[in-house]
Structure prediction request, 909 residues.
Amino acid sequence: MRWFETPDFNFIKAHKIGYVISGILLVAALIGIFTKGLQYGIDFKGGKEFVLEFDEPIEVVELRSALSEPLGSTPVVKRFGSPTDVLIRTDNEGDITEVQNTILEVVNQRYSQNEASVIKTDIVGARFAEDLKQGAMNAIIFALVVIFIYILIRFKNWTFSAGAVAALFHDVLIVVGIFTIFGEIAPFSMQIDQSIIAAFLTIVGYSLNDTVVVFDRIRENSLLYKTMDYDKMVNKSLNDTLSRTVITSVTTLFVVTVLFIFGGEVLKGFSFALMLGVIIGTYSSLFVASSMVVELQRRKENA
Amino acid sequence: MQGNGTKIVAIAAFLIISIYYLWPTLANTLEQNYIEDLPEAERVEYKEENTQRLQELRQNSLSLGLDLQGGMHVTMEVGTAKLLRELAGSNADSTLNNVIKIAQKQAIENDTDFIDEMVSEFEERYPDGRLSRYYRSEAENITRRSSNEEIVKYLKKQRDSAVDRAMEIIRTRVDRYGVTEPAIFKQGNSRVVVELPGVANKSRIRDLLKGTARLEFRLVGQPDQISSAKERIVSYYNQQAQSDTSDSVQQGRQQNPLLEVLNPRGRNPYSVGYSTGRDTARVNELLQKQEVQELIPRSLTLMWGATPFQTTEQGQELFELIAVRSDVEMTGDVISEASVNFDQTTNQPRVSMNMNAEGARRWARITGANIGKPIAIVLDGYVYSYPNVETKISDGRSSISGIGDVREAEDLVNILLSGALPAPLEIIEERTVGATLGEESIQAGFYSTLIGLVIVALFMIAYYHSGGAIADLALMLNIVFILGILAAFKATLTLPGIAGIVLTIGMAVDANVLIFDRIREEKRTGKTLRAAIEGGYSNAMSAIVDANVTTFFVGIILYSFGVGPIKGFAVTLMAGIVASLFSAIVITRVVVDYLTREKSAEISFG
Prediction:
């Protein structure tokens, strides 16, 4: 089997189409983020989350309205994977034990024939959540700075650094946008929490992986084909590495899809972010990062 | 074959080391399966006979995170604000309280140290001010003349020791409760993390962890002082009600907001009144107002009774609000023994306490001086009882009554004996996972790994033929290496950690993809297979290194920022990079070289 044996796609010429697609996606993501705000999960917002397992399936709408009054505000009640499991999220600031007892009392009264047990709880104080958020923010900023510097050192050219970091921003922003816009209608949690941040950083690592391989080839080709036009040479490099880019993306996409399907409810949001990240990361290494380098290089030379 | 000698040795060494570290995990799993298959009676016997060996195996096994084995993870914070206020004692004034309050907010916003923030806030407000106004300690040589720097050092030391002591006390309590293999460690400068595998009764553990067990003996207030303070507060809210016209007009009647929730008829001269359990929070809120606090003499403190004195016919529980003296006569650190027994008349559980010699002496003096008057027994800010002193008590005995049930009494004894926490602990994060959910997660992780592995392996063979098969061999060894690295570094396997392994399976082939693609390219230029292989490996190297170093950086950053399961993910990600680099570059090279050189076999790269 051979894919892209000697491909000759004109990626650089197609960069305008790439910019349009990326532009639309980015604008949509930004509109989503600015109008709806980032949908923080319990890790970054604080609150109490309980996952109850019932013997028989139950109706979430009914449970939600039954809990609203005793908890003092309408809780989020969602399915947690199987129809017998529900997730209850409340911002009630009372004592943990009391809140849990309130929930169990209501549940036991209403579903006396259907026994429920708490299988998972996550309780995060508001101040601790603030700390976690700060930590996540620092991690992302720090990661981008380190990557910028590393590429600068290895490729000795700031346009490469800028292209790589721009592509990373592009990838993460679009995934965040998708999470923000579709969070409410998704059948699993798409809130931004610690594991999603971990997924973002992994996307950063992955997308960079792709980008760096292409850059490496640009570096090599720039020595081999000194007389070739810069954009042609970059385009050749993209084509040279295309087979590898696609194969690695395919194998990675295989495993994250397996994780998404078989990894259990806890990993759903995480693996979904990775799925999106692999697709968008591959696209951006082909259409965004290198085009940026060509563009920046041209400006640098004309300046 | 000359050049590959070292490589083969390295592979063998890496493999042997991995298996060496994984051996206890394997043996432990086999043992557990064996034990489970034994009949009930033999099981206990077998466990007893092999306690030590089994324990050693378990300790050296790859440990599972709480999200996989089920259990409770709690992060607690030592109340630095309260500690700072308490260390100042009676020197604390509104200035200090304000500074502490602001510093607390700023410390969170700027992610800085609370104590540093407090000092800079204080110095900003009072450029010539000295903290020695508030803090003195003979033992630490902190006097009126101590500089602010010295005091910061002293305060930080106090906080450190408070955290250390809190950890010690928590360890004692958890051990007494009977949790196997708890992990208790410090996080940052004021946090304590407690990990309790297999814990089911969460609320009991919570109380056990938080219980400061600050036991105090206090005199009650003077009746005339109490009644006049009460009058002043009630009339203050009467005026409030009259001046407030907003909603009272519609109600047609002006209501005193305090009397709505507090019945002022005390059962005795020491009681300010009573409320239903639900209203106590509202009463506290009304009494906390600055203007109201000023109406209460400094010598008095209002506290709720710990248990209801009566339950109405409607099932509402009534709690009394009692005025005790602000001065503490004696604290619980004099308690040397405590045990649960039952009150002979009411048959209620109670905790009997014995005091040490010094405590007994003081207790005798206090009781002797207050015959006929009540003494309140206060635990964590709630009055458990305030019995009248009948005679002078000289044997150092005392008891706490008004306790819910026997279990609560037992926990109270545990808390009292492990000692009082030096500062209150607040639970700021709690995560629990049930054992069944953990088992499901292990299974989900296992299947994901297996399915991912099979799909990727088949794909590689389909695309790269025999080259792919060699990469697959490396991939299998890769997983052994990752687990070996995890076991060697005593890392904990979490669900995100397993996800990291699955992800690595997909990404690990990347290095081989890079190499194989390069070999194909080299072959296209007309090189022989040997030359193409040579060129493929050497030319792909720089891309492989750069791509993996950057991902490794991300792993390090994730590890240093992440907590709990995320750390597990970062660890497997990093272990995966190291292992896959090794297996892709070294192992496949050795196999490819062997096959082409020794066997002169024709390897196809598709």
Notes: Chain A has a mean pLDDT of 88. Chain A touches chain B through 77 residues (CB under 8 Å). The longest strand of chain A covers residues 82-90.
